[in-house]
Write a structure and sequence with these properties.
Blueprint lengths: L2 H6 L1 H6 L1 E5 L5 E2 L14 E5 L3 E10 L12 E8 L4 E5 L13 E11 L6 E9 L6
Antiparallel strand pairs: 1-2, 1-3, 4-5, 4-7, 5-6, 7-8
Length: about 130
């Protein structure tokens, strides 16, 4: 990923920022310029809470070159509290403990490195949501 594109996507990658249609209230991630539901162009930035539940998951053994040092790893579809589903890698979890319905939260982690001289790309992943026990 080139530096200008990485810079443009930073709010999306670090803050889980999507879009909200001002006409019908529909939420989207990634953000969209036009609402597919009502065709309105009146969209505003919307920052998701970053918590949700695992909707579906898969364990990846075969990866692209960028991720070969991370395999095997879990990729999940996470349904956020707001109802939007996002695809993300799970982190800080044993692959045998991942289950549909597991509560998770968004964290910023290293995604990959662009070769030896390129930037280190950070972005969102999800980890199990730990609840405090009194």
């Amino acid at each position: 990923m080139d530096i200008p594109r990485y810079w443009r996507l930073r709010n999306q990658r670090y803050h889980l920022q999507g879009a909200k249609c001002e006409q019908c209230g529909q939420l989207y991630f990634p953000p969209r310029a036009v609402c597919p539901a009502c065709k309105s162009r009146s969209m505003s930035a919307y920052r998701f809470k970053g918590t949700g539940r695992v909707y579906s998951h898969s364990l990846l053994y075969q990866t692209s070159d960028r991720f070969e040092g991370q395999a095997p790893y879990v990729v999940a579809i996470v349904e956020l509290e707001e109802g939007v589903r996002v695809t993300a890698q799970l982190t800080d979890v044993d692959v045998d403990e991942v289950a549909v319905g597991m509560p998770v939260e968004m964290v910023v982690r290293k995604i990959y490195e662009e070769g030896d001289a390129g930037p280190i790309v950070y972005g969102y992943k999800f980890r199990p949501l730990f609840t405090r026990q009194d």
